[in-house]
Amino acid sequence: MRQDRLTLKAPAKINLYLKVTGQRADGYHCLETLMQKVGLYDELELQPCAAGIHLQCAGKGIPHDRGNLVYRAAEVFLQATEARRNGSVGGVKLALTKRIPVAAGLGGGSSDAAATLKGLNQLYGCGCADEELAAMGLRLGADVPFFLADAPAAVATGIGEILTPVSPLSGHSVLLVNPGFSVSTRWVYQTFALTRQENGSNLKNSQEDVDGSLATASRNDLEAVTVRKYPEIERLKAELLQNGAVRALMSGSGPTVFGLFADPRQAETCWAVMNRRFAHTYLVDPVQ
CATH assignment of 173-205+214-284? Predict the structure, then answer.
């Protein structure tokens, strides 16, 4: 049954561990990463219409066309399900409210795309299986399958599409600090590959195991690339640790840095300090 209107929340994520394990012939990098959804959300409203994709975005500089993953996700879904919808082209009106910073290492665009696929599947009653939606999502970005999955936390391997759910982070508050500039994920991975080539590394998979505890996992191979251009990221990590964080790490390709706090009062105090300097500072809980 088709619904008239649907509103979904799209969470951000942090990478508690990220190791680059290789590079495929097509240029994509293979990863081993621990991802955890956190309570910072974009909001997406979907409404069916006769034809076309009509996207409105609340947020400065957010594209309303194919430059937005939400638009491309709607394209992919409507094309893939055209026959299932009795040959009707159909259309959708989408209203996106952005709260997750853009190009921040928090997966906002991928999460929005996943919400679009899930929302359209529900809106049009297409009955697409999880595997089918994940295949659509992978065409849009390697993180999209994670946001399509129900699991709040997972180990992702391959290019990020092979997911093993794990117990979510608990007993910690998460402080996100975005320094206020964007970082291109493509640039980080390209630069990482060049840096490794210069160093003579071969990017072979190591035998290290991912730590079973999310709270103690602490490694991000991409940090060295981003910090080289933006040394303030390293300073932010140090400041979070000095203010009570038990772990501090850059998320994804950056530049957002997160701190894990076992003491919620220390987390609130640190949030107050950071928020005076950085507008995009968020104290959130891990999604359970």
Answer: 3.30.70.890
